[in-house]
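protien #1 (seq + structre)
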Amino acid sequence: MKKIIIIILIVYPVFLFAQDPITIGGDNNWFNVLAPRGNFSFQMPQSGYNQRDTLSTLFYSLEIDTLLSLQVHHIGNVHTEMPVSDPVWQQLLNQNGGDTLRAVGAMMLLLTNGTLEGIQNITASGAQPPGIEIGIKYPSEKIAGNDLLISRIYYQAGKFVAFTLTSTEGDAVRLGSYKTSFFNSIYFY
């Protein structure tokens, strides 16, 4: 009888872990997160993410470990004409042919003191608001070296949403794996 109890105590936790839906990068067992106020959904690789809802801003954040994190920002009441009096914003807007999303990307580049790794127009599943994907390499505040930031930014009808992944430059392969799963899960309705 004692052997059976020991076997159960060993096998049962293994069975529990085998049933655990938390998986890391690239797998299909991510958790759905609904943001009905923003009319979008996405997935996170773990259920233990932080969520903040203040005024007209929703914020979701998850640190996988000290090297990799995911964030979602939704600002529900954005007026891009408001900062026209700001000369830096106006210059970035002019340099980008009046394209608000590319001007936001240029502002991110300026604020991070980084270098542009890539930028492209994109669409998401569902209602398909216009968007861009931007990659930036910038000096790390945590380690000697650089960090990477990849962000998909959408803007439509006064709603601004940014889906962002950050990691160290040395963790670029894992960042790419998470990027695929995270960005492919974005859905607007």
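ok now protien #2
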Amino acid sequence: MVTTDIDQVKLWLNQWDDVQKSRKIYRLLHDAFLSNEQRESASEMMIELLRTYPEESAGEAKDDATNCIVSFIDRPNVWIMDHLLELGPVRSLKEELIYQILEIFVSGSIKDYIKFYEENSNFVESTGLNHERNLRKIRILTFISLVNKHDEITFEELSKELNINVENVESFIIDVLKTRLARVRIDEVDGRIITSSAAYRTFGNKQWQILQQRLKEWQTNLQTVQKQLIDIQPNM
């Protein structure tokens, strides 16, 4: 098994200040990790490789960018992919189908994916991506988007939005809970789910504002509890 201090490698390569050598090392490490089935480390090396391409030469790495996108979509435990959109070689693919499918997995819905697949099934198959695995992932990602918008959702609404039968909603939610992307409670009596928390698929200005608001609420709650404790101390 390849055991490499990735941060140390990046430090060395920055000190060498030789882009071509850096790319060669990142590619060798990527291939080594991949051959040892260390897909997470391999993906990290590929991202570092793609970062070495400035905007003006980003098109030279289109093949690597395409493989990187496919790898992220295909990995079963990878859910957040918005950082790929910041890479120059990935942006150079904007007019291509691979970029469209990435955008769907970053912020689209299962309806978007199904429409894309119906129109481009040959392309999806040609990438090596598995349609059924894609459906599972985008269905879970769609669910994450829904619970970030609604504190409560009925089984009927989920059935419609996720393109699954109502009787399969509960088993689907159990599948979601295993990913730890969301904390929800199933209300079987009323046929609904109640959300406690959920991950964000993207983290932009809106998410920062929500986080700031929640931090303010927590601070207010803590101050209230602190005041209550101070008030009851004289009576103890």
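The chain has eleven helices and three strands.
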